[in-house]
Design brief:
Blueprint lengths: L3 E10 L4 E3 H7 L4 H8 L3 E3 L7 H16 L6 E5 L11 H7 L6 E5 L5 H14 L5 E9 L9 H4 L4 E11 L11 E4 L7 E3 L20 E3 L1 H23 L8 E4 L4 H11 L6 E2 L2 H4 L6 H11 L8 E8 L3 E8 L18
Parallel strand pairs: 4-5, 4-6, 11-12, 11-13
Antiparallel strand pairs: 1-7, 2-3, 6-7, 8-14, 9-10, 13-14
Helix pairs in contact: 3-4, 7-8
The structure holds oxa(dethia)-CoA.
């Protein structure tokens, strides 16, 4: 009998330090007006030096494990572009710190699509009966790789982590993840990249340009790809789920830019009031973006049991992916279960 991966718990964590647009303009050549109108971002959280990606991942993971009531996990997946170290992966340390030593643990690298890819990998582990409960964490500390002289990236990204606990269940029960649409195009690898520090341009050797150690993004071109790739991916995920665009109660899109969310909703014919957005307060948190948005939307009641939810992301690689699910009855942030069935 086929087994589905069913959403059973959520968690998230943000560093304490909030950096408003006004504060940011003291660090880089930008303005509050430009950032708000071009991206929708008003503030972001930056980790202080000494706070690693694993610290945020552990805090988010603890919260998801607790809220799931599952008592643990057999596998831990960490989607990240900013691992604690180039080697080893961050996931085994996170598993150990969560008291899950011995669990299968590995990192997933798909930049801002990482959480969707990790969910798909977790669903595969569950379907293959390799694991019954998988903790999936998206965590990034992009402030550690941003170039303060590059205002297009410095103004956009923030740090954070989000987590989901998936358990084995039935394909037709609420919370079961449907078939994923995933894709990639390596021809676009230069559009979102950190050039140095890997095997191709080693940091120990002379780096041709000191700025190569930092994250870069060809913003305008990436914007165009993001809209096109997510639109196509969403349409593929809707088709496999047998849903129409009008069936979508909540679109939870990777939070890269409010203008991308608006454009995507418009192209897909989805009412903007059904689009979940937290970008104003957290910025683009890369792999953490979708689980953070899910946890916050669940907490404030904008995601409710019975909602038909569509997740979609786009990121470096290039990579993209989408999946649908019906929102389950989950423990709310205060420990009670989530509210009544949706009205809109
Ligand atoms: O998360 C993974 C996927 N990422 C995305 O999907 C992000 C997609 N891209 C974007 O969200 C947008 O392209 C950005 C927010 C990154 C940039 O916005 P844009 O409207 O596409 O700006 P642009 O790069 O085309 O630049 C337009 C102008 C330029 O000035 P000139 O050459 O016209 O004089 C930039 O130098 O805006 C300038 N600019 C800024 N000005 C003030 C760029 N960034 C800033 C800034 N503050 N922070």
């Amino acid at each position: 009998m086929s087994r589905a991966a069913v959403l059973a718990g959520l968690g998230s964590a943000l560093p304490d330090r909030v950096v408003t647009n006004e504060e940011l303009t003291a660090l880089t050549d930008s303005s509050d007006e430009w950032i708000r109108t071009r991206t929708g971002i008003r503030q972001r959280h930056f980790a202080v030096e000494g706070t690693a990606t694993s610290d945020l991942a552990v805090a988010a993971g603890q919260c998801a494990l607790k809220s799931s009531g599952q008592g643990g996990a057999d596998a831990v997946l960490v989607a990240t572009t900013t691992p604690d170290r180039p080697c080893p992966a961050t996931a085994p340390l996170v598993a150990s710190r969560l008291g899950l030593s011995g669990a299968a643990a590995f990192d997933v690298g798909a930049v801002c699509t990482g959480f969707i890819y990790a969910l798909a990998a977790a669903a595969g582990l569950i379907a293959a009966r390799t694991a019954d409960r998988v903790l999936v964490i998206g965590a990034d500390t992009f402030s550690s790789i941003l170039n303060p002289r590059d205002r297009t990236t410095f103004a956009v990204f923030g740090d954070g982590a989000g987590a989901a606990l998936l358990r084995a269940g039935e394909p037709d029960e609420p919370g079961a993840l449907n078939t994923f649409d995933l894709g990639s195009d390596g021809e676009g690898r230069d559009l979102i990249t950190v050039r140095a520090g890997g095997s191709q341009q080693r940091l120990a050797a002379t780096v041709s340009d000191p700025d190569d150690q930092y994250f870069t993004m060809a913003g305008r071109e990436v914007f165009r790809h993001a809209v096109q790739r997510m639109e196509r991916s969403v349409r593929a995920a809707l088709e496999t789920a047998g849903w129409q665009h009008t069936d979508v109660d909540r679109l939870v899109c990777h939070q890269a830019n409010q203008r991308i969310l608006d454009r995507l909703a418009d192209l897909l014919g989805i009412d903007p009031r059904r689009v979940v957005s937290n970008i104003a307060l957290v910025g683009n948190t890369a792999a953490a973006s979708i689980p953070l948005a899910l946890h916050q939307a669940h907490g404030d009641g904008s995601l409710r049991a019975g909602h038909r939810v569509l997740l979609t992301a786009f990121g470096g690689g290039l990579t993209w992916g989408s999946v649908t699910l019906t929102w389950p009855r989950l423990a709310a942030l205060d420990g009670s279960t989530s509210g009544p069935s949706p009205e809109n």
